[in-house]
Write a structure and sequence with these properties.
By secondary structure, the chain is of the alpha/beta class. The chain has helices spanning 14-26, 75-80, 83-94, 106-111, 155-167, 169-178; strands at residues 3-8, 30-35, 41-43, 49-51, 54-55, 66-69, 98-102, 119-120, 134-135, 140-143, 146-149.
């Protein structure tokens, strides 16, 4: 079974984090919410406090297939400032394990010089910070080991792209249909 880790830093965007967790769990993909702080409880950019599943020191990086970074301010800079996390991100990249990020968070992979001309997307006001990536204005971009997305409004499609990578297109479609995503309007 695929295993994903999603990281919570003070100031994360809760919609981007919880939507991914919800849709992966509906798809029977194992995902742990991991706090980069010394507390399981982490407060979002909109003052919503969520209890993570694990602290960073307890996360099983050896079993994990993907690192997922939600955006948010100051969540994104707080993730980037966490050297143990950025070290693990670099390790994942060297092992060709999946790296996903949404909103402002794709800029972390760029800052770490991991994109190397690959296509990526992010929140529009952060596009100029993608200096090593080729910015693409699409809801979700998959290129090599990277899945990136633009923001809270594209998070369902982002999560579906992750589900598709681990459980297949049919499972992604079933989960989207179950939440009435395609018939929402």
């Amino acid at each position: 079974m695929a295993q994903a880790l999603i990281f919570l830093a003070p100031g994360y965007e809760e919609v981007e984090m919880l939507t991914v967790v919800d849709l992966l769990r509906r798809s029977h993909i194992s995902i742990d919410m991991v706090s980069i702080t010394d507390s399981l409880e982490v407060t979002s950019s909109h003052n919503v406090t969520i209890k993570a599943d694990k602290l960073f020191r307890d996360a099983d990086f050896d079993e994990a297939d993907m690192i997922i970074l939600p955006g948010g301010i100051p969540g994104t800079p707080n993730l980037l400032a966490c050297q143990p996390l950025t070290d693990k991100i670099k390790e994942f990249a060297s092992q060709k394990k999946w790296l996903s990020a949404v909103c402002a968070a794709p800029t972390i992979y760029d800052e770490l010089k991991l994109f190397e001309g690959r296509k990526a997307t992010c929140y529009p006001t952060f596009a100029e910070k993608l200096t090593d990536a080729v910015y693409v204005k699409q809801p979700v971009v998959v290129d090599d080991i990277f899945i990136t997305s633009r923001g809270a409004g594209t998070t369902i499609e982002f999560a579906a792209a992750i589900v598709e990578r681990f459980a297949g297109k049919d499972t992604a479609k079933e989960v989207l249909e179950a939440i009435i995503y395609q018939d929402a309007y």
